[in-house]
Structure formats: structure tokens, C-alpha cells
Amino acid sequence: MVATLEIGLRATSGAASPQFCAGFFVSTPQLAFPSKTRRKYWRKRFLYRSLYATSWTQNNCLRSCEHEKVNHRSQFFSCQCQRAEDTSGIANSDAKGSWYTTQIPGDLNGQKFTTNGSPYRSRGSAVEDEAWRLLQDSMVYYCGTPVGTIAAKDPSDSSSNVLNYDQVFIRDFIPSGMAFLLKGEYEIVRNFILHTLQLQSWEKTMDCHSPGQGLMPASFKVRTVPLDGDDSATEEVLDPDFGEAAIGRVAPVDSVFCITINSEVLSMLLVFAGLWWIILLRAYGKCSGDLSVQERIDVQTGIKMILKLCLADGFDMFPTLLVTDGSCMIDRRMGIHGHPLEIQAYNFQALFYSALLCAREMLAPEDGSADLIRALNNRLIALSFHIREYYWVDKRKLNEIYRYKTEEYSYDAVNKFNIYPDQISPWLVEWMPDKGGYFIGNLQPAHMDFRFFSLGNLWSIVSSLTTTHQAHAILDLVEAKWSDLVANMPFKICYPALDGQEWRIITGSDPKNTPWSYHNGGSWPTLLWQLTVACIKMDRPEIAARAIEVAEKRLALDKWPEYYDTKQARFIGKQARLYQTWSIAGFLVAKLLLEKPDAARNIWNDEDAEIVNALNIFPRGKRGRKALKKTYII
């Protein structure tokens, strides 16, 4: 059964053809290209607005867009019920504004999923049925179509206690989007991709400073506001958050870190969300077979803007991304400055690596992309070597570090980062199994953070940042240390927790991140889906199945909390939100992948043959200065 949605696009007789907005790719050609004059235009803040009118009918509505000034620095498209994916139909409409009809799936894989919120079909166990119902209840609609899922929908929360959990977070939607894709429900993911792309060009200003182009918001909210000039009518607007209202004015981690650019360290609300957006875009194309979205000019431009921010040249000598202390969504210090593998549950270097691979796969070959692709390839090779060579630790490597000499000054030094053997924590000597290993949490001169960060290691497997041996060793470690990393609820966000004097100094006695709570060793159910993808990729699904069995016993009974506290994950987190959407979606994705393991191929990155070949010839011996090809007289 296919539901037909007739979209009326009719121009006023004798007037100029109207412009219909759907991202940057509109009927006016010049708005689709990133010229210098258009970049100035894109910096202007615009609102994509949908007018609720009494003329709405179930399958037919008149849609039009017009430019309108909001204030001295804001400009927006006013969009009456315009769907983001209708761009191609708009672009193909004639100059007089003909009627356009598009087909919207009403029966996908027999699930009877529609955009008007019709119930899901029963899918399996009672826990799964409840999860699907809750995921549907969390869906957010804009102009009558689904555009995302809110972070949490706890009915016991008062309106004053909601904070920003009623917003659609880019990062939080990823497991939701994966769940929809695996069930063949593609529309919500497509809408999410295109609407967040529209918000990429929103004007972002904090205390008179505007960060660079390409920035994705951490989250957005659909707000209903009075219509200008008519107090009796209302309209919907998309209101993004780039960190302007965040606690401590630190944006959520999925879009903030600091990198060195030129002679300054600029605090940039950068593209962590954008990196997830790239990964979801690729997954959408692979699952749906619809490559037209990633081929659109505005989408290609969005990918390039994100990459240019990530690949910007700076003073840093390392290919890993640089993070300053406090660049965390929890607006407090957690000892993750420098070049961390991840930023407290949000994989960082591995996500960066994965997004670069996905972007390279989707970028259209053209003359304008040659330099960007070249820089991308160089960064992939350097990043892969750096992480595999210097972040890896197992029993053999630990013994090597234990015997390090210090203060070496030479090109062929063994202890390149001048690590002092006394930095090896006593807990690690006892904790490291004979079989297994992992990527450490952080590496910088004279400092190694030996904590095990779960998501950074799991996504390193998913993205093929690890070697095959390293990937299996990480899973060996998970099995060997099951009582520490899983216990009563998967999965421990990091191990061990900061405590005692270390906790007081590093976190400033943070009352929310007490030992074995929240981001200091708490257990997060949403990590189930990343664990499942990693296990399926390495042909070890029994590990994921065992973890899912543990989670399924408690999640529904505990009302799907955000995280769990205590060393064995016995208690619901003291400040954890209930009915957390990504806990629900993470469980569903894990269950779906176990049922259809071949679908995991649409999520992971295969090891790149060119990178493997380059690493095989990468110099690992004596490093000296390269001879100059020319002699210069100064």
C-alpha cells in the first residue's frame, strides 16, 4: 500500500515564480553553490517556518516560500508545510508553478509506519514492543513530518526540570536513526539529515564571536510561536542550539572541542555532531539504496564544509585532534585535554577516522575536491599509524613502557613521548590480562592516561582504525574483564573511575561525577549497539548476545534510564533521566542487528586497502631529517 501525498505548488498568476526552500538546494540556482558572495548569505540566520493554517487537509496542501526579514541580523525562508525531500519536485516545476505529486511510502516492510503517528506492529518480546512504542512517542514532527526524536520523555519530569532533554540532539538521534533504517523506515532519517543541514548555515554568535562555517548544532527544538502580524495564528520554527545557552557556555560534546588554527587556539563549536551526521548519511544511502541525497549539491557542500574545519592546518605535530580542558558537554573538567581517544563517552579520534572514510566514499569526484581528498587521504594514513602505534597497550607493551629510559634526545628514541615508567598505575599492572589489550585514553608528552574508554575502543573496531589483531584483543579484554565492564548492566563508560585525591584535583570535587557515576565510570545502556556492531564485524556475536541478555532483564523494569551508578552498575544513576531515547534505541539496534547481522555492514567501515599498503611501507626505523632537494643561500 502506498500513500500518496499531493503537494500543491502554485504561483500567483503573472508574478515571478516563487522560491521554495528545502535546504540550500532551491529553485534559484545561485543559492546552491558556495561562492564567496553566497557564503556571506549563508552566515545570515534563517528560520525554516511552517505555517499551520485551516486549509490543511490530509493529503493536499498549498505550499510556498517567501523571503522575509526578521530583525537586523536574521533572515529566513517562510515555508508553509514544505517537505525537505520535495526539492527535486520543486526544481522541476514549471515557471508558472504547476502541481507536483510525490509518493510517500505507507507500508515499509509490512510495518505500517506512517508519518501521522500510526501504531507500530508488534515486533517480538514485550520489552521490544514497549521500546518501539516509546521510540515512536519520542518522535518530533515539523510541518507534519517526523524530523527526529527528543533526548528523553520522562512523564514524571516537571516542565522546569526538563532542561534541554526535550530537544533533538544530533548525537542522540544516531541510534534512533539506525533503528529506523534497519526497519526500513527511511523518511524520518532523510528529513533529519536535510533539516540539520539547513541549520548548518545558521548564524552562530557568542559574545560577538562567530565560529567558522560548517558547524552543526548540538541540538534543535521545534517551537510554536505567534505568526508575525497575526496574533490569532501560530507557526512552527526550528530553533537550533550551538551552545549559547549551555551551562558554563560549553556546548554539548557532540559539537565542541578546541583545535589549533594558525596562531590561536580558537574555541570552536565544531562538527562532532557533523561527523555523526556524515556517518548517518552514509548509512542512509547504504540501507535505503537512495544515493540521491548524498549526491545533492547542498549535501556535498555540507560535507566539504565539515571536512575543511576538521582538516584545517595548525601548529600541532600530531594527526589526532587537539582538545583543551573543559571541552566537554558536562561543562566541567574531566582530565581529557590534549589528544584523547574519546571525550567521555563520545568517541573522538575513531569517530573522526570513520567520518573521513565515509566522506571520501560519498564525495563526488570533481576538480574542486582534489585538494580536499588529497588532504583527507594523508590524514587517514597518518592518523591510523599514530593511533595503532602509540595508543595501543597490552601486557607486552606495558612491560616495554615499564623499562623505558627517559630524557632521550635523538631521532630514533624509543621513548618518543618521554613517558616515565612510574606513571603506570598500580591498578593497571594487576588489571591487564595475559590475553587482550586496548587503546589508552590519552597520549601527550610525559603523560599517558591508561583508563579504558569503551566507546573509543569499540568504534575503533567499527571504523577499522584497529588492526585485526588489535580488534580481537579488545574483545578478548571485554570477555576477560566482564565483571568490571558489564556486571549488572552494559556498558561501563570508562574504567576505572577517578576517586580520592585524583577525583578532587581533576574534577574539582564534582558532585555529579562522583566515582562510578555518570561520566566517571557509570554504565550506559546505549553503548550496546556499538558493542554489537563491533562483535558482529569480528564474527563474535555471542559477546553482544550475552550483554543484551543482561540488559533486557532490567531496562524496561527500570524505565529505560540514561545511565547506572556504582562499580557493578547496581543502581539507577542518581541524576539519570528515565525513558532516555538513546537507551531505548541502542537496545533496539542491538536486537535488530543480532536478528539481521548482515545489516551491520551498512554501519561499519571495511579496512581500506590503500591505507594498509601505505602503512606497510611506513617508516618505522630510524627517523632523520630529509635531505633538501635544493640548496638555498641566505
UniProtKB/TrEMBL annotation:
> EC top class, in one word?
hydrolase
Cellular component, GO annotation: chloroplast
Task: Show the Pfam families listed in the entry.
Answer: Glyco_hydro_100
Reaction(s) this enzyme catalyzes, per UniProt: Hydrolysis of terminal non-reducing beta-D-fructofuranoside residues in beta-D-fructofuranosides
Gene Ontology process terms (BP): sucrose catabolic process
Tell me which EC number(s) this protein carries: 3.2.1.26
Record keywords: Carbohydrate metabolism, Glycosidase, Hydrolase
Q: List the InterPro entries.
A: 6-hairpin_glycosidase_sf, 6hp_glycosidase-like_sf, Glyco_hydro_100
What Gene3D superfamilies does this protein map onto? 1.50.10.10
What domain of life does the native source organism fall in? Eukaryota
What GO molecular functions are on record for this protein? endo-alpha-N-acetylgalactosaminidase activity; sucrose alpha-glucosidase activity
Q: Which family does it belong to?
A: Belongs to the glycosyl hydrolase 100 family.
What is the recorded function of this protein according to its Swiss-Prot or TrEMBL entry? Invertase that cleaves sucrose into glucose and fructose.
What this protein is called in its record is: Alkaline/neutral invertase
- Source species: Zingiber officinale
